[in-house]
Amino acid sequence: MIWPVVQAANKTVADYSQTVKTMICLSSREKPFKLTAKGTTQRHTGNQDYAEEIEEIYTAQDRQLVMGLPSAITPDTVYKYLQNIICKLTGRQSIKPSDDLYSIGLDSLQAIQLSKIVKTSVFSYNPRLNTEHLNVQQIYAEPTAEGLTNLLLGILDKTSGPITTVSRSNKIAQLIAKYTNDLHTWKSDILPQLPALFTVILTGCTGSLGNYILDDLLRNPQVTKVYCFNRSEDSPTRQKEGFQGKGLQTSPLVDPNKVVFLHVRFGEPHFGLSDRQYKELLDTVDVIIHNAWKVNFNHPVSSFEDPHLKGVRDSAIGAWKPSEEVTAVPEVPMDTAEAALEQGYGESKYIGESIRVEASKTAGVLTSILRVGQIAGPDTRLGVWNPHEWIPSLIKASKATGQVPSDLGGYPIDWVSVVRISPYLLLSNPPVMNLTD
After folding, report:
1. Considering the entire predicted model, what is its pTM?
2. Mean pLDDT, rounded, of the chain
3. CATH number, domain at 376?
4. Which of 11, 108, 209, 369 is the most exposed place for a label (fewest CB within 10 A)?
5. Which InterPro entries does this one have (predicted)?
6. Which residues lie closer than 8 Å to 167 by C-beta, 6 or more apart?
7. Looking at the domain assignment, is residue 396 inside a domain?
């Protein structure tokens, strides 16, 4: 069977690079692929030979997903119309009006398909209607079925005025206020100092940087124990594989006195842990290293709210155990929202920083913020640069096409090796640090 092989290959690439079953066509014995002298396929010739078959695959895909608008346009019928399309694209049985579409599996290619399907349906319904607001950017800006329903209703209602949106600065301010308004107040002008021996919670430990952070923590004599927070249940296996691939020592990973892997659900009370587990964390944890964040430059800031912004807020709730020595509360420079890039990823990082700064000022949660520049691959013999990041992806695309960009925009080469970042984490005293090479 071919499909199980394709499924196995799909697990090794990013979502947007995966092959779907409906986009597969078998070659014909009458038109065998032409090979180069090295025995590799002549891709350009193959594309020419199978041009009709390739065109038919895309045409059939469009026909399969085309869905006409309901005859009666109401909020309920339009919602069900969109729900059916989204469920077909994502393979889900149902979605809720407030579900974040990108959290439940809608990827960039499916967002393009969704935009194309809805545009085509609106044009068929009434060619005079303006479908400008149904572009992919607007689909990303409305990441729930409820939001898309309101967007589409506004377009279908010819008598409605211009579509109103909340300004970028107001949206950011609302999210910061949402996660800081109920912070407990710290009644002293001083913050406790980190004890000589301490226990750490680490998020994102199975990621490219997270592997090296965990390795440094386990080798640090001041760290008595590390609790690894993960949303996946197979994190111990993934962690061992990550360490092995980078040439890191795996023996500490099986010592329950040194490291504990916890399956958590950010945004839920007590991170979804039992009362006993949560009390153990409150009694023992001194430091939280929040190293997990979704890297996606298309998603709007609202798509980072759950679990990322909720996780930042929840990590500010724990009990801090004061020591006898104290230091003055550091001054933290506050930037305006305009300092964040106009994309959900950059805005969410700014909001996360603002939540932590407010937690430090109001609730007495000692905070250090590390703004890391471009993280390059390791400068050691073992380990590789994350193949899904933009430089490795650019190199692979250039190799496949036989072309390289003439210009990358004049950016300075300002990178730091993934191996060199983690030692700074436990040495960083400033409230804000920018790490580059």
Report:
1. 0.68
2. 81
3. 3.40.50.720
4. 11
5. ACP-like_sf, Adenylate-forming_Reductase, FAR_NAD-bd, NAD(P)-bd_dom_sf, PP-bd_ACP, Ppantetheine_attach_site
6. none
7. no
